[in-house]
């Protein structure tokens, strides 16, 4: 066979390949294959969000539905949940992405400097300083969801946003807001200063100077994590409204 004939033969074989793939596809019934439907059970995520919020955590936007559903398990202890999040944010990449996301939102610019200084304090293990500043920053950012700027009742703000998300039948945002509502309810829980300080971080004990200031790295991470969750909600709201 001459070189020209050989090249023609190769060309013909190449041209026949699509037909070959089509025949194989028909033989294997590829066109009849249906992808299995993903079953979403909003109630599972809703319960998981409540479980996390009551333990002092909000749901990060980076979590997959499978990761969220894991926290529905009622036998999980607070220590196990804390250990999970501590390991998650001990990954430098995850912790850095948290700050990158927050600093990327221009509508939060007035709090960026304070958050940066909290980040510096946290990395230097000055957790009392980071926590004491993150609390009013978190309250200020939450106030963006309230038309009445004199309203300082953050539990009410979160409850209203949760109710709104349920009305819109958005299981994603209702799940996220459910974790925020229970987190803020725990954070702002009324407490008698003449009794023992609550185990979970409490806004009133810290900002009213009643705490023994023995807050841990984990308490600081909880507040950064909550900021990330709220900041992402603001980011998506802005995107949907623009």
TrEMBL record:
It comes from the Bacteria. This is Apea-like HEPN domain-containing protein.
């Amino acid at each position: 066979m001459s070189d020209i004939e050989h090249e023609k033969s190769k060309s013909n074989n190449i041209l026949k390949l699509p037909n070959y793939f089509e025949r194989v596809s028909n033989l294997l019934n590829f066109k009849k294959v249906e992808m299995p439907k993903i079953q979403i059970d909003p109630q599972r995520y809703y319960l998981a969000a409540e479980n996390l919020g009551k333990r002092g955590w909000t749901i990060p936007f980076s979590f997959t539905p499978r990761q969220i559903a894991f926290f529905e398990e009622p036998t999980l202890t607070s220590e196990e949940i804390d250990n999970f999040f501590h390991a998650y944010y001990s990954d430098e990449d995850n912790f850095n992405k948290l700050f990158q996301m927050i600093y990327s939102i221009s509508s939060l610019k007035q709090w960026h400097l304070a958050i940066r200084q909290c980040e510096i304090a946290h990395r230097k293990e000055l957790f009392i300083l980071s926590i004491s500043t993150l609390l009013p920053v978190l309250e200020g950012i939450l106030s963006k969801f309230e038309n009445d700027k004199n309203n300082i009742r953050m539990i009410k703000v979160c409850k209203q946003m949760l109710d709104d998300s349920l009305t819109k039948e958005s299981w994603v945002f209702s799940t996220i807001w459910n974790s925020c509502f229970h987190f803020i309810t725990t954070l702002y829980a009324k407490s008698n200063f003449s009794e023992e300080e609550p185990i979970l971080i409490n806004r009133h004990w810290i900002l009213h100077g009643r705490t023994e200031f023995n807050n841990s790295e984990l308490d600081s991470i909880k507040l950064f994590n909550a900021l990330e969750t709220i900041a992402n909600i603001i980011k998506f709201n802005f995107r949907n409204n623009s």
